[in-house]
UniProtKB/TrEMBL annotation:
Pfam families: LIN52
Gene Ontology CC annotation, any one: DRM complex
Family assignment from sequence similarity: Belongs to the lin-52 family.
Source organism of this protein record: Xiphophorus couchianus
Name by which UniProt lists this protein: Protein lin-52 homolog
Gene Ontology biological process terms from the UniProt entry: regulation of DNA-templated transcription
Length: 116
């Protein structure tokens, strides 16, 4: 890319000092790292629809997992947000229960290591 700017006084030396012969090549991963890891690999696999094999991430899914994905994919935005709120509440309740059980274990001295 050649950068050329007009000089305020019309001097040719000033113009030549502003020239840039730098070549910006996107082939270097060090200069242009992938902003979202995995996107290039996904795009490459998506461009080739000829392959009949499922993607790598689907190979480990069971039928229950696929059904869950279909169910979540069919939800409206409001329903999906409600589902997320429910999961957050469940995680909070589990955290409280775990805290109670850890406190209980502490009082019962079942978490102590045997003394040598």
């Amino acid at each position: 890319a050649i950068l050329k700017m007009a000089s305020p006084n019309g001097g040719d030396d000033f113009e030549s000092s502003l020239l840039s012969f730098e070549n910006l090549d996107r082939a270097s991963p060090d200069l242009w790292p992938e902003q979202l890891p995995g996107v290039a690999e996904f795009a490459a696999s998506y461009k080739n629809p000829i392959t009949n094999s499922p993607p790598k991430w689907m190979a480990e899914l069971e039928s229950e997992d696929i059904e869950m994905l279909k169910e979540l994919g069919s939800l409206t935005t409001a329903n999906l947000m409600e589902k997320v709120k429910g999961l957050q509440n469940l995680a909070y309740q589990l955290g409280l229960e775990e805290s109670r059980e850890m406190t209980r274990g502490k009082f019962l001295n079942i978490l102590e290591r045997p003394k040598k």
